[in-house]
Specification:
With about 230 residues, this protein is an alpha/beta fold.
């Protein structure tokens, strides 16, 4: 009797899975760039700083389910844009423009240990308000807004600066008009690239804004440090 119940549950689960697969299609996942370009600054802050990004933020992806037929159908497509894995390499490049050196730390424990070689720690978190919007059609604007929570700590863990940056960016591709024709795969790839470009631009603006704020407040934030 138990075996029959188990087989029945497995069969029901399998049917549910088939139903869900039939209801939506997973589109190709968009990913950000690891080497976004950042502005060279005229001067650097002559200190070394640590960088920490939590595991949750490292693995963050934005998802959106879009109904077919301009929202008239219950069936639809699942879109995703992978953001988290690309924050660290780009933050290293960005902060490296204004600090003497930047070192990735695996933990944000305080006080900072002497062997880390840093007296300050920048923690970056992807805020849950981060979103993307692919629109209703293949040729719609692809919007991405990355909310980046930034905190600067001293060696004892005191928060010296806390700020959330956000910047909605968008891209559109005329190739989306081909989605209903013979070149549907090509159009979907172009739409994926538009999401990537919008995400790159949103992250770039956030990190550039962080750099500008750190430079503006450097004497207040790093008071007493040689050369500041």
């Amino acid at each position: 009797m138990r075996n029959r119940s188990g087989i029945l549950l497995i069969a029901i689960g399998f049917m549910c899975l088939l139903f869900l697969i039939g209801c939506f299609r997973v589109y190709p996942k968009a990913t950000l760039s690891q080497d976004i370009s950042f502005v060279d600054r005229n001067e650097k802050i002559p200190i070394s700083i640590g960088l920490y990004i939590s595991p949750d933020s490292r693995g963050y992806s934005a998802h959106q389910f879009v109904k077919k037929d301009a929202g008239m159908s219950d069936d639809g497509y699942m879109f995703s844009t992978e953001i988290g894995p690309y924050v660290e390499p780009n933050a290293l490049r960005s902060l490296g423009k204004i600090f003497r050196s930047v070192k990735v730390l695996e933990h944000d424990a305080f006080p900072l240990k002497e062997n880390t070689g840093v007296n300050y720690l920048m923690t970056l978190e992807i805020d849950k308000r981060t979103f993307m919007d692919v629109g209703k059609f293949a040729f719609s604007k692809k919007r991405v807004n990355i909310y980046l929570q930034c905190r600067l700590h001293d060696a004892q863990g005191k928060v010296l600066l806390e700020k959330v940056f956000d910047s909605e960016s968008w891209r559109r591709t005329g190739k989306g008009f081909l989605a209903a024709g013979l070149f549907g795969n090509y159009a979907r790839e172009a739409a994926k690239n538009a999401r990537k470009q919008a995400g790159d631009e949103s992250l770039r603006i956030d990190l550039e804004a962080l750099n500008s704020l750190l430079i503006e407040k450097k004497q207040e934030l790093f008071k007493g440090q040689p050369g500041v």
